[in-house]
TrEMBL record, chain A:
The gene is nuoD. NCBIfam families: PRK06075.1 (NF004739), PRK12322.1 (NF008974). GO terms for cellular component: plasma membrane. This is NADH-quinone oxidoreductase subunit D. Residues 120-290, 291-364 form the NADH-quinone oxidoreductase subunit D domain. It comes from Croceifilum oryzae.
From TrEMBL, chain B:
It catalyses: a quinone + NADH + 5 H(+)(in) = a quinol + NAD(+) + 4 H(+)(out). This is NADH-quinone oxidoreductase. Residues 1-14, 27-40, 120-130 have a biased composition (Basic and acidic residues). It comes from Croceifilum oryzae. InterPro entries: NADH_quin_OxRdtase_su_C/D-like (IPR037232), NADH_UbQ_OxRdtase_30kDa_su (IPR001268), NADH_UbQ_OxRdtase_CS (IPR020396). Keywords: NAD, Quinone, Translocase, Transport. Pfam families: Complex1_30kDa. Belongs to the complex I 30 kDa subunit family. PROSITE patterns: COMPLEX1_30K (PS00542). NDH-1 shuttles electrons from NADH, via FMN and iron-sulfur (Fe-S) centers, to quinones in the respiratory chain. The lineage of its organism: Bacteria, Bacillati, Bacillota, Bacilli, Bacillales. Its EC number is 7.1.1.-. Residues 83-101 have a biased composition (Polar residues).
Length: 365, 288
């Protein structure tokens, strides 16, 4: 029997598999992880403090930088909260455009996850496929609002730009293409023996743990809780459309992969339905020139690709928020990591960490 | 042991059983959430009366039967499509006026005593009572029976926030209340939706939004914390999610959570001076 001693291992903040600037201080005994202490804050920009000196419209570009992989949902979270507090009416076309962009962004975000996760596990080619398809979505967004990542597309009361001629046609073509393309992904990844061995049965947690850590999104649904804010606290016009909430069975990382692939399919389904009903019309509602939000407190959550993205606004009736707090799903989801890693082999570390799907811009706020 | 508790235990036993319960829950969530939106206030209050005695599943079945009768109202679209008005309008029921700390538990008042409307001149027509009002009234009666209920300062419906029932409590009571909300079979608020803190300049507030999966109820709790001596008991052992959130509130807002297992700064460096989210924060610069 080889005698081993406890050793401190530092991982990050500059490490390709931490997807940003996460630092993990790991106590290992041989190859077994005894304790993990995530150190975060390297990307803290004080968005919440900055927001107190900004008008509601000025806050929107800052939200792009929180979860930079799905900026559309971030835009929506703050815009939605403001609209609800002000009691604004949003034109139908604007809501549909928002839904199309949010769902496409969800697809793009999940594609990034699949690609980079497989890269973490050592598979190069899925990454190229994923980013190629994601590129199509980014090009669509580029055409719509002139940016590939930080869209700044939504406004309180509607959206900034109407869809250019032929854009909706292109979206439809993409949806049809992507629905077929999903089969390719399954051919490429789902049956791969190395992938299955690396992901099956690791990173499992129970439903009770998930609830206690307030996990949300696919991290919660993988334990079998069918909880999706798009359906259960319906916002925007999601109630008009049919879609399923995929849930997991075992709760391991393999389940998460299948769940996210199904979510891509569901998002495409939603986009397709929206394309069927969207009509010409105004894209901005009647909004006062200076946005003065009535005094009060408001919290609302929307379903971002990573989970419940919440916005807690305290307003004192001025044109700037008194306090703006984001419930950032990655921050909540990351908290369970030390629990998951305790007693694991160090080779599983990256596989489990990657499975959570964190975006450090969001973790650090 | 009540039905609720049995239900809870059943969920915890084995994986296979848990899976069954969950599949039931799927159905239940759907019907319940639809029902919630569609229902008229009267129907809901009627249903609330016998809510306590009925089991979860049977309750949802009942709702399913009732559904065709209730006409779909405007509120179907969204959680927040209710009219906007300020937090405490004249109609909100306030049966919990602030009481001096030392006073013993006062005799119970009837749950729904409308506050005199004279406080704020009501323009247009008076609002209808919120659909959540009966639930909150019932809930407050239960809270009044608890030890330390004199620390409950206010209980109202946040109309602007899609009728969110909200409690305002003093910091002394927070831990006790948290345990009650988390563990009591009538509450089961297992899920922290949001954990936030606000500097009101007169005092600080820890704001927690909770969600109860078995009952599909949301609840906002605002814990008032003294500004000069910002201390409140930690609830990190009650909800694991509160751990990092309390560290964040400590770091940025300067609230000390007593009993927290690992209260360190989380976003800023350990040498940082001050707490940036305080309204009177002045950046510390050594060079000046």
């Amino acid at each position: 029997m080889l005698r081993t001693e406890e050793m401190l291992l530092n991982m990050g903040p500059q490490h390709p598999s931490t997807h940003g600037v996460l630092r993990l201080v790991i106590k290992i005994d041989g190859e077994i992880i005894r304790e993990v202490d995530p150190v975060i804050g390297y990307l803290h920009r004080g968005t919440e403090k900055l927001a107190e000196d900004l008008t509601y419209t000025q806050i929107i570009p800052y939200t792009d930088r929180l979860d930079y992989v799905s900026a559309m949902t971030n835009n929506y979270a703050v815009v939605h909260a403001t609209e609800k507090l002000m009691g604004l009416e949003i034109p139908e076309r604007a809501e549909y455009l928002r839904m199309i962009t949010m769902e496409l962004n969800r697809v793009a975000s999940h594609l990034v996850w699949v690609g980079t996760y497989l890269l973490d596990l050592g598979a190069m080619s899925p990454f190229l496929y994923c980013f190629q398809d994601r590129e199509t979505i980014l090009n669509l967004f580029n055409e719509l609002c002139g940016a590939r990542l930080t869209y700044n597309y939504m406004r309180v009361g509607g959206v900034k730009w109407d869809a250019p001629d032929g854009w909706l046609q292109k979206v439809e073509e993409f949806v049809l293409y992507m629905q077929k393309e999903l089969a390719t992904y399954h051919d490429l990844i789902s049956g791969n023996d190395i992938f299955l061995q690396r992901t099956r049965g690791i990173g499992i947690y129970t439903k009770e743990q998930a609830l206690s850590y307030a996990l949300s999104g696919s991290n919660l649904r993988v334990t079998g809780v069918p909880w999706d804010l798009r359906q259960h606290q319906s916002y925007s016009l999601y109630h008009q459309f049919q879609f399923e909430i995929p849930i997991g069975e075992k709760g391991d990382v393999l389940d998460k992969y299948h769940l996210r692939m199904q979510e891509i399919a569901e998002s495409l389904k939603i986009v397709k339905q929206v394309l069927g009903v969207i009509k010409e019309g105004p894209i901005m509602g009647k909004v006062p020139k200076v946005l003065r939000v009535p005094e009060g407190e408001f919290y609302t959550g929307v379903e971002s690709p990573r989970g419940e993205l919440g916005c807690h606004i305290v307003s004192n009736g001025k044109n700037k928020p008194w306090r703006l707090k984001f419930r950032r799903p990655s921050f909540y989801n990351l908290q369970i990591l030390p629990d998951l890693l305790k007693g694991e082999n160090i080779s599983n570390l990256v596989a489990i960490l990657g499975g959570i799907d964190i975006i450090l811009g969001e973790v650090d706020g | 042991m009540s039905d609720q508790e049995k239900e809870q235990e059943k969920e915890l036993t084995t994986e296979t059983k848990a899976a069954n319960v969950m599949s039931e829950e799927t159905v239940e969530i759907k019907s319940a959430s639809k029902e919630q939106d569609v229902q008229k206030p009267d129907a809901l209050s009627q249903e609330l009366k016998d809510e306590g005695s009925v089991k979860n599943e049977s309750a949802s079945e009942e709702q399913g039967i009732q559904k065709p009768d209730a006409p779909p109202s405007q509120e179907v679209t969204d959680e927040g499509s209710v009219k906007n008005d300020s937090v405490s309008t004249g109609v909100d029921v306030e049966n919990t006026v602030t009481k001096p700390q030392a006073a013993s538990v006062p005799p119970k008042k009837p749950a729904a005593t409308p506050r005199p409307a004279a406080k704020k001149p009501v323009e247009e027509k008076p609002l209808e009572p919120s659909r959540k009002q009966p639930w909150l009234d019932k809930f407050v009666v239960k809270l009044k029976d608890l030890e330390g209920s004199e620390y409950l300062e206010d209980a109202f419906i946040n109309r602007a926030n899609s009728d969110l029932p909200t409690l305002v409590v003093k910091s002394e009571w927070w831990r006790y209340l948290a345990l009650y909300l988390r563990n009591h079979p009538d509450c089961q608020f297992h899920y922290v939706q949001n954990f936030s803190s606000v500097d009101y300049e007169t005092h600080l507030e820890v704001v927690v939004h909770l969600f109860s999966f078995p009952y599909k109820e949301r609840l906002g709790v605002r814990v008032k914390v003294d500004r000069t001596e910002a201390k409140v008991d930690s609830v990190a052992d009650i909800w694991a999610a509160a751990n990092w959130n309390e560290r964040e509130a400590y770091d940025l807002m300067g609230i000390t959570f007593e009993g927290h297992p690992d209260l360190r700064r989380i976003m800023l460096t350990d040498q940082w001076v001050g707490h940036p989210l305080r309204k009177d924060y002045v950046p510390y610069d050594e060079g000046v």
